[in-house]
TrEMBL record:
<dbReference type="Pfam" id="PF03781">
    <property type="entry name" value="FGE-sulfatase"/>
</dbReference>
<dbReference type="InterPro" id="IPR042095">
    <property type="entry name" value="SUMF_sf"/>
</dbReference>
<dbReference type="InterPro" id="IPR016187">
    <property type="entry name" value="CTDL_fold"/>
</dbReference>
<feature type="domain" description="Sulfatase-modifying factor enzyme-like">
    <location>
        <begin position="40"/>
        <end position="440"/>
    </location>
</feature>
<dbReference type="InterPro" id="IPR019866">
    <property type="entry name" value="Glid_motil-assoc_lipo_GldK"/>
</dbReference>
<feature type="signal peptide">
    <location>
        <begin position="1"/>
        <end position="19"/>
    </location>
</feature>
<protein>
    <submittedName>
        <fullName>Gliding motility lipoprotein GldK</fullName>
    </submittedName>
</protein>
<keyword id="KW-0732">Signal</keyword>
<keyword id="KW-0449">Lipoprotein</keyword>
<dbReference type="InterPro" id="IPR051043">
    <property type="entry name" value="Sulfatase_Mod_Factor_Kinase"/>
</dbReference>
<dbReference type="InterPro" id="IPR005532">
    <property type="entry name" value="SUMF_dom"/>
</dbReference>
<dbReference type="GO" id="GO:0120147">
    <property type="term" value="F:formylglycine-generating oxidase activity"/>
</dbReference>
């Protein structure tokens, strides 16, 4: 009898394990993947191109010798990141900071949801045990409060609207938290008391995969890096970048006023640009998780080769994104926003920046890859980089080298810096009134490539 039961158990196991596959090796089946073009991005088909100076290097920098390289397919923002888009990031951090402070104070005073509509409504979601899933309860019991930050990992309540009208603050605890977010009264003037932007800090973690892949005998946690930084743009760059120049209106209004919402954000350093990429990934994947969809891969800054390949728009050995060799078209109109003549910034119809989708796009439908604002890329600057980088997806990113490459030239630069092959750099912790950025995302798969030299994608 025991042998019969054992036989039946084995047979049941066999049939349950290969049910539906007839015993064949068919592979595991996950959710069907449908590539989705990210909003505001365009697909750059992978391919090879001649990277470097196509014309004579008349300034004799000699940092961009010609070299044939190949890059994989990727999506790229059609425009530079705008003030409105970066403000979305800033406001998310602002709201998250306020919600966290409200939840912490609610925890300290023992306030819970339903306490007459006060600060308790903003308590941590796990404040009430009966509202937690088994997983949330386990994480709360075993992990929360063990790190450097006692509240790390706690889930804040995003379902209830924040109250910004001072006449509608629900209680003194809420008032205390909101008061802490603004500059002190003694620093306000003309009746304007604004948010203390130094309180707007974004924290994220990432893994240094390059270092981890080359190391042996170390733990995974040794390569997990935590970053925390202030993310509000430095609006004082409009003053500090130009001595003996009246640019106060740009300092006062450029970032926050809706009149400049579609203009490229500036005053953002390289580290802040990377933080924006991390937030954009987090924000999109939160949406994906809520709808039980697969996560998307990360948004990031483009590598130097990727940026140049995209800027060329499929044109081989061209000087500018539109070809060249001139910065004017056949009707005598300037093709980009830059400094065309000595001191005559407005000769191209713009004194400072212009809308991010101004002028004609290149053949990849990318706007302002030359002029308007220079753009941060992921690569570190080394004058000899082209001599030793790989010919496949070349990129140099030395974490100890604070000189980061900027490309494309800006509204205050002469035409030389607009050339797709011209290299320049700025320090990672520096912000300028003429440097912005755009992001990229890797294409999942390898079936989109440049078809010969015709620019078609198959």
């Amino acid at each position: 009898m025991k042998k019969l039961l054992a036989f039946i158990a084995v047979v049941a196991l066999l049939f349950s394990c290969n049910s539906g596959d007839r015993g064949e090796l068919v592979g595991t089946k996950g959710k069907k993947w449908h590539p989705e073009k990210p909003y505001g991005m365009t697909l750059i088909p992978g391919g090879s191109f001649i990277m470097g100076k196509a014309d004579d290097d008349f300034v004799a920098v000699n940092d961009a010798p010609t070299k044939t390289v190949t890059v994989r397919s990727f999506y790229m923002d059609e425009t530079e990141i705008t003030n409105a888009e970066y403000r979305q990031f800033v406001e998310w951090v602002r709201d998250s900071t306020v919600r966290l402070r409200l939840a912490i104070l609610a925890d300290e005073v023992g306030a819970t949801p339903g306490d007459e509509g006060g600060i308790g409504d903003f308590a941590f979601v796990d404040q009430e045990d009966e509202d937690m899933t088994a997983y949330e309860q386990y994480m709360y019991d075993n992990y929360y409060g063990l790190g450097d930050d006692f509240y790390e990992g706690r889930k804040i309540n995003r379902d209830i609207d924040l109250i910004w009208d001072t006449s509608e603050y629900p209680d003194e605890y809420y008032t205390e938290v909101m008061d802490s977010m603004y500059i002190p009264y003694e620093e306000a003037y003309n009746g304007q008391r604004t948010l203390d932007v130094n309180k707007l800090k974004f924290q994220y973690t990432y893994m240094d995969i390059q270092a981890a892949a080359r190391a042996t005998g170390k733990s995974r946690k040794d390569f997990i890096i935590k970053e925390e930084l202030e993310i509000y743009p430095d609006t004082t760059v409009w003053i500090k970048d130009f001595n003996y120049s009246y640019n106060e209106p740009m300092h006062n209004d450029y970032f926050w006023h809706e009149a400049y919402g579609d203009y490229p954000v500036v005053g953002v350093n390289w580290k802040q640009a990377k933080a924006f990429c991390a937030w954009r990934t987090l924000y999109k994947n939160a949406y994906q998780k809520e709808r039980k969809r697969q996560h998307v891969n990360q948004f990031r800054l483009p590598g130097e080769a990727e940026w140049e390949y995209a800027a060329r728009g499929g044109l081989e050995s061209a000087t500018f994104p539109w070809g060249g060799p001139y910065a004017k078209n056949d009707r005598g109109c300037f093709m980009a926003n830059f400094k065309p003549l000595r001191g005559d910034y407005a000769a191209d119809q713009a004194l400072y920046t212009v809308e991010a989708d101004a002028y004609e796009p290149n053949d990849y439908n990318l706007y302002n890859m030359a002029g308007n604002v220079s753009e941060w890329v992921a690569s570190s600057y080394d004058a000899n980089a082209y001599e030793y980088t790989s010919t496949m997806n070349p990129n140099v990113n030395d974490k100890d080298n604070m000189r980061k490459v900027v490309r494309g030239g800006s509204w205050k630069d002469v035409a030389y810096f607009l050339q797709v092959s011209t290299r320049d750099f700025e320090y990672a912790d520096s912000a300028r009134s003429y440097i912005g950025f755009r992001t990229v995302q890797d294409y999942m798969g390898t079936d989109v490539v440049l078809n010969d030299k015709l620019g078609d994608a198959r």
